[in-house]
Design goal:
Elements (H helix, E strand, L loop, with lengths): L7 E7 L2 H17 L6 E7 L6 H10 L7 E2 L7 H18 L4 E5 L3 H12 L3 E5 L11 H12 L2 E4 L2 H9 L7 E3 L3 H9 L7 H5 L7 E3 L5 H4 L2 H14 L4 E6 L1 H7 L9 E5 L7
Length: about 280
């Protein structure tokens, strides 16, 4: 069997729903640059960090990206256990499917875990959305960002501020590439495919008479008292508007523990990307 040693192998990691939106433009760019996979051979690995079919599977179709070559199916767990499971299963994946480069995006547990595994196996890592900082160490995502950016080899940034943050920890300019935001690429690429959700008609929504709200970070939704305060504050601040709140299944559990929801907050199920 002939092996073309000039083909670069890239393993792309996606774990959470936002990751899919970030990797879609990258996959589209690879297809455009090398439609016959003569120079680049990519393998898409889904860690399964987000696993609800309503919230993950539809992304493949909506964003025109392939079904992953592998799904590690790690599921939900504590940060430590989830990270450990990703590392164990991704190590096996890399042993069975060696690669030249592991490409990670964002700041979720999958990002950090895949980076750790790759570097311990002497594999290069590229971080898309590198250098972002909240400077809030109570955010798990901030820890993931810091660890990933210490270990990665190539850094693709969305802003000049991110470049400054990377240089402050000793990353040389030669490894930093200011490329912009692939989330915006996803938005622009899908503007012609948007679908009007049922709620738009059933609640007589129109431009200017409603607000779309999301709450999902653990620091905002895990503490019942804080969640209640946020809901009340936002409702009062936007008292003249209907507040449409597509609820993540995890947040739904917390909301059921509240004694009363503001009248102008309308809960709906999570929406597919194109309807959202």
């Amino acid at each position: 069997m002939e092996v073309n040693l000039s083909i670069m192998k890239i393993t792309i990691i996606a774990g959470a729903r936002p990751n899919f939106m970030k990797i879609a433009p990258i996959i589209h760019a690879i297809r455009k640059l090398d439609p016959n996979s003569e120079k680049i051979n990519y393998r898409l690995v889904h860690t399964g960090q987000h696993y609800d079919s309503k919230l993950s599977d539809s992304f493949f179709k909506d964003l025109d990206i392939p079904v992953p070559d592998a799904n590690l199916e790690v599921g939900s767990a504590s940060h430590a256990l989830q990270t450990a499971n990703i590392m164990i299963r991704f190590e096996k994946e890399l042993i069975e499917n060696p690669t030249d480069l592991v490409l990670v995006v964002g700041d979720v547990n999958s990002t950090m875990a895949a980076t750790l595994v790759a570097k311990k196996m002497d594999t290069k890592v590229a971080h898309v959305e590198a250098g972002l900082r909240s400077f809030d160490m109570e955010m798990p995502e901030e820890i993931n960002r810091l660890v990933t950016d210490i270990l990665a080899d190539y850094f693709f940034t969305t802003s000049m501020e991110a470049e400054i943050n990377l240089k402050s920890i000793g990353i040389p300019s030669s490894k930093i590439f200011f490329v912009g935001n692939t989330m915006i690429d996803s938005l622009i690429g899908n503007l012609g495919k948007l679908e009007k959700p049922h709620i738009y008609s059933s609640e007589n929504l129109d431009k200017g008479n409603f607000i779309l709200m999301t709450l999902h970070r653990p620091s905002n939704v895990d503490d019942i008292d804080k969640l209640s305060e946020l809901m009340t504050f936002i409702s009062e601040l936007a008292s003249n508007y209907k507040i449409i709140f597509p609820v993540h299944p995890r947040t739904q559990v917390r909301l059921q523990q509240l004694s009363l929801l503001p009248d102008n907050v309308i809960l709906i199920e999570s929406l597919r990307l194109l309807k959202f």
